[in-house]
Amino acid sequence: MSGSVPFYQKHHRHYDRGYRYQSGSRYTAGTSSSSSSTRGLDWSSPSGLDKSRLNPLPKRAKPSYLAVDKENHIIGYVVPLFRSSQDFATGYSDAEETRLRNTSSHMERRDLFTSGLEMERSEQVSRKEAMRESAERISLNKTIHEHEEHFKRMNEDSLMHAPEFVIKPRSHTVWEKQCVRLHCTVSGWPDPRVVWYKNNVAIDPLTNAGKYKIESKYSVHSLEINRCDFDDTAQYRVSAMNSKGELSAFASVVVKRFRGEVDECLPAPRRTSFKDGPVSEYGINFQTHIVDKFGVSFGREGETMSLGCTVIINPPLHRYQPEVHWYRDDVLLSPSKWTHMHWSGDRATLTLTHLNKEDEGLYTLRVTTKSGYETYSAYVFVRDADAEVEGAPGAPLDVGCLDANKDYIIVTWKQPAVDGGNSILGYFVDRCEVGTNHWIQCNDTPVKFARFPVTGLVEGRSYIFRVRAVNKSGMSRPSRVSEPVAAMDPADRARMRGTSAPWTGQIIVTEEEPAEGIVPGRPRALQVTEATKNYVVLSWKPPGEKGLEGVMYYVEKCVSGTDTWQRVNTEIPVKSPRFALFDLAEGNSYCFRVRCCNSAGVGEPSDPTEATTVGDKLDTPAAPSKVVPTRNTATSVVVSWEASHDAQELVGYYIEASIVGSNIWEPCNNKPVNATRFICHGLMTGEKYVFRVRALNAAGLSHFSQESEAVEVKAAIASPAPPFGITVLECVRDSMVLAWKQPAFIGGADITGYFVDYRDVIDGVPGKWHEANIRAISDRAYRVTDLKENRKYQFQVRAANIAGVGIPSLPSDTFLCEEWTIAVPGPPHDLELREVRCDSMTLLWKPPVYQGRDPVNGFYIDIKEAEAPEEAWRGINTKATENTFFKVKNLKEGETYVFRVRAQNQAGVGKTSDISEAVQALTKPGTKEIVVDVDDDGNISLNFECGNLTPDSKFLWSKNYEDISDSSRLTVETKGNKSKVTFSSPGEEDIGIYSCLVSHTDGASSSYTISQEELKRLLEISHDHKFPTIPLKSDLAVEMLEKGRVRFWLQADQISANGKVDYVFNDNLVSQGEKYKMNFDKNTGVIEMIMESLTPADEGTFTFQMQDGKATNQSSLVLIGDVFKDLQKESEFQRKEWFRKQGPHFIEYLGYEVTPECCVMLKCKVGNIKKETSALWYKDGREIKADEHLGFTEGVLKLEIAQISKKDAGVYEVVLKDDRGKDTSALNLTDQGFKDLMNEVFDYIANSSTPLKITSTDEGIRLYTFVSYYNDLLPVTWHYKDSAIAFCDRLKSGVVGDQLWLQITEPTEKDMGKYAIEFSDGKGGLRRTVELSGQAYDDAFAEFKRLKAAAIAERNRARVAGGLPDVVTIQEGKALNLTCNISGDPVPEVTWLKNEKGLTSDEHCILKFESGKFASFTVTAVNTSDTGKYSILVKNKYGTESADFTVSVFIPEEAGGKKK
Length: 1460
Fold this sequence. Notes:
With about 1450 residues, the protein is mostly beta strands. It is elongated, with a radius of gyration of 62 Å.
C-alpha cells in the first residue's frame, strides 16, 4: 500500500501528511512524519518505552492516541492516564529517577559482565519494578479520584461542573460511498450544548439535507455522515459548552477510493502549461467561490437543458485555468453527443442536448485549484415525454449490454416509473447495425424480464439496441440507444482493448492453424448461468485438448427423467462457449450437455447439468415498508423507508406522491434510486402529500408500499439564532429598560418570545447569569427589575420559537444602573425598514421609553450611505414629524443606506437611536404594489399579491402603520398568495395609509394612501358599479339610407350575448314587421331599427331600452315639429333620388370652375348613360349646344366660356335623356350666382398679378403691375398710406393691355409713402404694395426730371411739320409754290439749300418765312436750271431738322417727242 499512491492524493496540499503510512512513521494527531526522527511510539520495538530509557534526557514528544496493527491499519485509540495530583507527580518523578539510575548502572554492568544469565536477570528485575510502579500509580490515582468526588458532593458549588468527555470520538478510515458515524459521551451540569465542526466550520444538517445527521440522546452525541466522498476527508471537532466552561475533542475521517475506480471517476493529473505559456501557482493560496448557482431543475425528455455556475477565484491570475469537472451521481461526465461542457473563464456550463431519463440525477460541479476544491450539487429531474398514444407507458431507460459473444448479446434495461395507468405487458428489443438506420425487432412477443439475449448476430459487427414498453393502450416511445457493442468472443475483445493500435471500425476474426486428425475433448464446467420462462443461458469452458484447431460446439437437451437427448443447434454449431436456448416448455425440467467438434469429428459430451426447471428464478422484490416523510424546504420533502426484505439483484426504488384527497399519483423520480432516502422536489407549498414506494429488479416492480402519513410541504424549522444589538432605553434606580434586534435567522417559524438574562460586573469580573423573566416576552423591549443602583450589569437575550429556545446572544456592553435625569428624551428604538424600492423606502420606529422632562413632540430622521464616514450624516426633515413612520424619497438606485432617529421635546433633541440595518435601494424582482379595486357590487378593496410566500407567511395589514383596531370597518380575506382588505362602508374615518407586510419573506411589503380626493373618486366608482349602466359608444341617432329608408341606431360599448333590447315608440313597444326591421349585433354592440319611409303618423319619440344582467340603459330620440318635417322631406327626396338614378342622371350637378387662363368651365358628371343618351345645353331657355351619342367612357359634360362678361350672365341648363327617362341640372349665373362666379375669376386674376413696381415718365412717376388676364369688371382700388386715393388731374389710374397703372404727375416729396393696389374678389381680396420713399423715390424722381427735360427738348426743338413733297415734276415755264409748317420754340432760323448750297431769295426764287410758322418756296417761272435737290433747314437751341425735295423741270416738246 505504501508503494503506490493514487495520483489524486498527490494533488492535495496535505499529501504525505495524512493519507499514507510508511515504516517507522505513523499518523499522529496534528503531527508530521517527514523527519528522520520518529515522534510518539515506535512500534518496531517490543516496548514503546525502550528508546526513551536509553536516553538520559528524553525529549517530550506529543502523544499519539492512535493504535496501528502490523499492516499499518488504524485499529483503535489509546486512552492516556490523566494525572491531577501534585504528590503523585512528585512520587512518579522520584521513581523515574531511580529507574533511570538503575538503567544506567545496568548499562555499565553490561559492559563489564558478558554473562547472558546476568543480563536476563537484570531485565526481569527492571520489568518487575516497572509493573510495581504502574500498580502503585493506578492505586494512587483511584484514591485521589475518590477524594475529589467526595469533596464535590460535600460542596454545593461543585454540583455545577464543566463538560467532560467520558468517551471521545474516534477517527475512522472508510471507503468512498460508505457511511461513517462519530460518537462521544459527554458529562457536565448544566447539560452541555454540543456542536460538531468540520475543519473548524460548524456543521448545519439543514444546509445540506441528507448529508449529515446529528443525534443527542442520554448524553450520547453522534454525527452520521452519509455516502462519504473525498470532500468528507477532514478533521472533525465536537465542542461541549455550558456555563462552567467549554471542552473540545477531535477525530479524523479519511475517505479512500478503490484503485479500479480512480481512472474512471477522477480527472486526469493537472497540466502545468498552457498554450499561452506556463502559469506559476507556487506560493499562491487560491480562494474559490461558486456563485450564481443552478437550482433544482426540471425537464422533459427531448428538451435541452443548461446548468451553469459562476466561479470566482481570488486572486485572479491571467491565463490561469482551474480544473472544472461535472459529475452525475458521483460519476465523472465526459463530453459526448448528450453532454456538452464549456468553461468561459468565469462560468462553467453543462448542456444536456437531448434530455432522457438517464440524465436524471444529482449533478455536481467540482472546481479544483492547487489550494483545494469547491463543489456544488443540485438535482435534475427528467419527466417522460408526452406519449405518442394516450395511455401508453413511459420509455425504458439505461439500456446496456450485460454479456456479448459471437452468437448473442444479452441486453438489459430498467423499467419505467410510469405505466400509463395500465400494467406493462412486456418489452420489445430492437437492434440496429452500426452505420445503418435500419432497426429490427428482436422478439416477436413481449418479454417481461428486463434482460433478453439477442441472437442472429453477425460475428465481428457492432450493434446498438433500444427497448420499447407496451401495455394494452399501446407502445411507448423508444428508449435512448445503448452504446455500440461488437458481437465477438470476449477474449478477442480483451486483446483488441489491450492493443495500442487505433480503432479502424473493422473487426478481423482469426483462428489458430488447424491440426488434422485430432478430435477435441469434452467441454468443462458446464452450468446454467441464467434461467427465465423465456430462455435459458448456458456457459462452459473450452476443452483442455482442442487439437490446435478452432473448436465449435453442439448443445443438447434432455427432458428430466428421460434418456433421450436432442440436439438444439443441428444446423450450425456454436462458436462461443455460451449459448441461449429458447422455446422451452415453461414448467418442465431439462438437463443440458455440450459436445465439441472440429473437422476431425465430434467429441464426447460434457457432464450434464442438474435438472433445471424453466421459469423465472428471480422473483420481484417485496414491497418496501415504513415510509416516513419529513419536512425539508418549502417545495420539497425528504422521504425515507425500509428496504425490501430479501430482495435479489435490486435495481432501485421509485417514489410517488399524491396530494391528499386527489387520488392522483405522480412519480417523484423517473430514474431508480439505490438509497432508502430521497428528496422529492417540485411539490406545492402548503399542500399535504402522501407518499408510497416500490422496488424493482430485472424481474419487475414490487407492489407499492403502504401510504405514508400526510405531511404538509413547508420549510423545516429550527431554533432561532441569537438576537443582537442590546441597548438601554431607560434607566431608573433599580431597573433598566432593554431593547434588542430580532435575529436574522428565525428558524423558519415565528418567534414566540424572548428570555433575558443579566449578571453584575464587579471590578471588570462578571458574575453568574440570572434569569430576568420566566415567561417569554413577545416585545423586543423589556424592563429588568430588582437591580442595584450604581452597579454595572451585562445582559444576554435568547429567542424562542416552536422548535425551542435558541442560544443566547453575546453579552452586551456593560451598563451602569443609575437614574437618568436629563431633560431631553431618550433614544427611539426598534427601527424597521419596509417598502424598499429603487428610489424610496419607509422607516418605522418606536418612540423612546424615557420621555425626558416633557412629552415627545416630534422626531428627526438622519441618513447616510452605509460606507460613508460619520461626518456624512445628514438630516432628511427640517421640520419634526409627529408620526413614528416616514417615507424617504429621492434615493439613488443601488446605493446602500443606514438611518437613525432622534426624538425631541420642549427641552431639545435627545439621543440618537441605534443605527438601522443597511438596506440597498433596489426594487426586488417580482415586487408587487397594493392595488385598489372596486368589484361589480361596488365593494372597495385593497389587494396585495406576494410571489415568494413561505408556508408560514402571513399578510399583516395596518393603518398608518399601526394594527387595525376597528375590524368592523373592514374585512381581511387571504387566499393563496393574495390578500384583500374590503371596506364595509367607506367614509372619512377610513382616510389614511394602509400597508401590508408579508412575514417570513425577504421584506415583501407595500402601502396605499387613501386621501380625501381618492376616497371621493372611489365612492363615485363604487356608485357606478352598484347601479351599473351599459356604456354607449354612441347615443340613438337617425340616418338616411338609399331609397329614402330611415335608420335608427346606437352602439353599446360592452354588452354580453345575454343582452336584450326593447324598441319603444311613444311608450308603445314595436316589434319586427313590414314597417320595422330590427337588428342587434352583439359582437359589435350595434342596435338598429329601419323604416321604409316616414309618414305623419311616425312623428314622436323613439326609444331603445337595453338590459344586460342587472346593467340597464336607454337612449331616446325626439322627432317632432320641424325636425320631423325636415327628416320626412329628406326621406322623400332620397326616395325620389333613388328612382331618378335608375335612368341617365347627374352624379354631380352642373357647376363651374375657373381655369388658370381665367376661362369659366361649366361641367357636370353623369352616370348610367348609354350610346342613345343625349345631352342638351340651354341658356335662358335657348339651346346653345347639343352632345349626342355619349360614350360610356365619358362621364363629364363641359361648356367653356372664354373672356366672360356681363352678357354671359344667365341660367344654364343641361338635359340628359334617352328611352329610360331624363334628368335635368340647372345652374343660375345671374345676380348673386354671377357675382360669385366673377369673384372667383377676380381671385384668379388677383393671384396672377405681379409685384407692384415703380417706373418714371416725362410727366411723373408711374406704379404698375401686370395680370395674366384683365376683365373690365375687375374691381381695383389704389391706396396711399392705407387710404383709398381720390383721383385728380395729378393722380390718375388706367389700364393698358394687361397692365394696371397709377400715374403721379409732377411728383413732390409729399407723394412719398406706401402705395398699394387692392384686387377685390368678394372674400379677403389681394393687395400688392410698394414703398415709394428713400432711394426708390430719389431714383424715380431723378429719372422723371431727366425724362421731363428730354420731353421738353423734344417738344420745342425746330422741326419741319410737313407739306413738302419728295419729288416735284413741273413743266418749264410754270410757277412752283411749295409751303411747309415750321415749329419750334424759340422760333427757329430757316435756311434753304439747293444742291447742298445756300439759297437766297430773289425775284426768280422767292423764299418767305411768315409768322414764325409757315415757310414758302416760290419759283415764278421754272426753267431747266431750277432742276435739282432742294432742302429746308430749320434750327433753334433745342435742335435742327431738315426736309428734302427734288424739282424736275421738263420741256413739253421733249416730252411729246419721247412719246412718239
